[in-house]
Structure to design on (168 residues):
């Protein structure tokens, strides 16, 4: 019986040793070395993207194109990103209307593979970090100010949730 307990204790030590580096994540370095995508540089959405765009709460299809929640005609941009795990086929949609969305420059919405909104905020860019939670890559966003927000995947609620801000 002592050998079993010792074996279990050793197993716990090994597990805790592998968990510690994740908890000590250096998000400042991750932001510096992240894959970044400026919203305004995403490719324009095409007519074939209509099935995706209809799931964006702040966009409405009109006879003359798309209109955002401010009532302004807009040209949404769209890109598919592999964020890993359940978001291996995420869609990033950007409404580049700073008149509507303020200093951030536009509204960025992330949809999962079933076109459900998992994140939506006024930001200028998306930064894909190398760290992961529940198999999905952590994110940060280009926002005005002196701190950088870090968002992590919350599988239980199927959405990104705010973790913390880091000072630049």
């Amino acid at each position: 019986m002592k050998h079993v307990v010792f074996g279990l204790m050793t197993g716990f030590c090994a597990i805790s040793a592998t968990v510690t580096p994740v908890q000590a994540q250096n998000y400042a370095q991750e932001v510096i070395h992240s894959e970044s995508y400026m919203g305004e540089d995403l490719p324009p959405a095409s007519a074939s993207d209509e099935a995706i765009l209809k799931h964006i709460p702040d966009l409405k299809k009109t006879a003359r194109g798309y209109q955002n929640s401010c009532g302004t005609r807009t040209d949404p941009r769209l890109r598919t990103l592999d964020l890993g795990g359940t978001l291996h086929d995420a869609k990033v949609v950007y409404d580049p209307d700073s008149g509507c969305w303020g200093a951030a420059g536009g509204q960025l919405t992330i949809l999962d593979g079933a076109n459900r909104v998992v994140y939506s905020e006024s930001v200028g860019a998306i930064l894909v970090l190398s760290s992961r939670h529940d198999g999905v890559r952590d994110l940060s966003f280009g926002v005005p100010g002196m701190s950088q927000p870090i968002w992590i995947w919350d599988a239980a609620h199927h959405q990104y949730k705010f973790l913390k801000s880091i000072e630049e």
